[in-house]
Backbone:
């Protein structure tokens, strides 16, 4: 607020002390002398970028313009602010409405409601975000798991016709309240109990409103290709654009499967099915410790899972499947590849891996003994874990695919809390620093496009994501030689460096590399929004 007043005050003074020259333009902010990477993929070019109110109003040689605030971008890149199509930012945004972890990477729009889990109703949620006042823009998908959970619960069965009608009505309501589309988490309970046909019926409703379908697929390990085919089929039969979110290949013996998954995407696109991808640039995932438990054992919810774990009949069957998931799936072949990242009932556990925890329990760190430790963690109250099991060559191959965009899959960082996956602090800076500058996997122009314009088109945000006249002034100004992620798995609570200025809706939020406290973010309504 202080900064905003100062800007106003300086602007006021300037207006009175400078004699306006006839024919001279007047702007609120002029970003001068930077290399513009405009989000289209076009090679960078030198231009000044002028902003008045919340919009980009001029681009070109504007050196003599009458401006209350000049940002010297000499030697820096000026790009659209980044749009994150997959976050779990509801975790953290109410604690940290400044969302430094995102803004300091140049992220100006966060998308929630992924993996089938979303706030509901959407309008109430949007009002809460507006009341909170946050730094980035905000938009959500409606979650199929949330809808099924509220209508059917955690039961593994088909929906009745009446339940189907009720669920469709909820999708309709969400789309009219401004959801971007519908998400599923077919890997998670209750999404895993949903037939493909049921998903098609619900996505048809989102399609009527111009929304998209974004899916955490049923399986990203041994059955990855079946899941890709299922996602494509849903897109085809529901006539809806689909996005395979955080596309990756889990489990050492599945590595390389992206050759085939990307071929399926290319074939589908050639047939006219609009399939796209997003990914995070890491070789580890993060999700609940329940990812090591077979889905059938989770039916009905936590109490039933606990009784199945305790029961003599089912315990050993579950245990065998946990061992298999450690050896051939999420566990990356060894208990030492699974790290607890957050544990509300025993915070000391955060940062330790399953092998260490097994040894602490005076057992050899075999997969069998680690499975017992997993049962103990679930009995204690559960936890979130980081799983090192993603193929590194697949990460590169997927990044280079033209249909791929970048998304963090992370919450808003609460600085110092737990041992989270570093992606919430590092995703976008890591692409620019590690994959573009250090390894040359994609060009700077491609990276910016994948992080801005391409996600904006996909999400039906048609006035953001480019440096072009008339668009909202969501802008990132960074040093391409310096930008890098600092957060690591060992030491995750580190902000990215190299981001110099970030503007959201024409207001400066990051200034000289620091967040200035401004909170100009807005709710962005989806294509079916029916108005107030
Ligand atoms: Zn997910």
Residues:
């Amino acid at each position: 607020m202080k900064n905003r007043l100062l800007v106003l005050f300086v602007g006021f003074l300037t207006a009175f002390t400078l004699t306006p020259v006839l024919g001279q333009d007047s702007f609120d902010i002029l970003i001068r002398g930077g290399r513009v990477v405009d989000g289209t993929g076009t090679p960078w070019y030198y231009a000044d970028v002028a902003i008045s109110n919340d919009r980009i109003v001029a681009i070109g040689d504007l050196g003599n313009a009458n401006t209350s605030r000049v940002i010297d971008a000499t030697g820096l890149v000026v790009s659209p602010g980044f749009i994150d199509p997959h976050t779990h930012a509801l975790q953290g945004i109410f604690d940290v409405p400044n969302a430094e972890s995102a803004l300091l990477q140049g992220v100006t729009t966060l998308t929630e409601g992924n993996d089938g889990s979303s706030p509901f109703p959407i309008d109430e949620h949007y009002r809460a975000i507006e009341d909170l006042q946050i730094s980035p823009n905000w938009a959500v998908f409606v979650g199929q798991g949330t809808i099924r959970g509220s209508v059917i619960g955690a039961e593994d069965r088909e929906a009745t016709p009446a339940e189907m009608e009720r669920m469709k009505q909820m999708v309709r309501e969400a789309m009219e309240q401004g959801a971007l589309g519908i998400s599923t988490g077919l890997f998670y309970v209750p999404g895993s109990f949903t037939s493909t046909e049921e998903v098609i019926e619900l996505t048809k409703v989102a399609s009527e409103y111009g929304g998209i379908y974004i899916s955490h697929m049923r399986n990203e390990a041994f059955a990855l290709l079946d899941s890709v085919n299922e996602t494509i089929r849903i897109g085809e039969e529901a006539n809806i654009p689909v996005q395979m979110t955080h596309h990756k290949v889990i489990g050492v013996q599945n590595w390389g499967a992206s050759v085939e998954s990307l071929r399926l995407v290319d074939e589908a696109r050639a047939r006219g099915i609009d399939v796209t991808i997003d990914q995070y640039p890491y070789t580890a995932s993060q999700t609940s410790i329940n990812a090591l438990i077979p889905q059938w054992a989770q039916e009905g919810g936590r109490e039933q899972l606990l009784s199945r774990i305790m029961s003599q009949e089912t315990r050993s069957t579950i245990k065998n499947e946990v061992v298999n998931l450690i050896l051939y799936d999420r566990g990356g072949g060894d208990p030492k590849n699974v790290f607890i990242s957050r544990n509300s009932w025993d915070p000391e556990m955060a940062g330790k891996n399953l092998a260490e925890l097994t040894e602490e329990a005076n057992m050899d760190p075999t997969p069998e003994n680690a499975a017992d430790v997993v049962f103990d963690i679930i009995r204690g109250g559960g936890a979130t874990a980081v799983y090192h099991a993603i193929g590194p060559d697949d990460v590169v191959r997927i990044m280079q695919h033209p249909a791929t965009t970048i998304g963090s899959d992370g919450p808003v960082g609460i600085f110092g809390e737990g041992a989270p996956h570093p992606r919430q602090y590092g995703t976008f800076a890591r692409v620019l620093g590690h994959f573009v500058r250090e390894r040359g996997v994609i060009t700077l122009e491609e990276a910016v496009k994948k992080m801005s314009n391409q996600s904006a088109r996909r999400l039906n945000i048609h006035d953001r994501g480019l440096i072009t006249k008339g668009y909202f002034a969501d802008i990132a100004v960074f040093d391409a030689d310096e930008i890098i992620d600092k957060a690591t798995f060992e030491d995750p609570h580190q902000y990215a460096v190299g981001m110099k200025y970030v503007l959201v809706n024409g207001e400066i939020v990051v200034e000289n590399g620091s967040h200035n406290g401004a909170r100009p973010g807005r709710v962005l309504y989806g294509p079916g929004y029916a108005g107030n």
Summary: The chain has 17 helices and 21 strands. The pocket of zinc ion is lined by residues 115, 216, 246, 409 (CB under 6 Å).
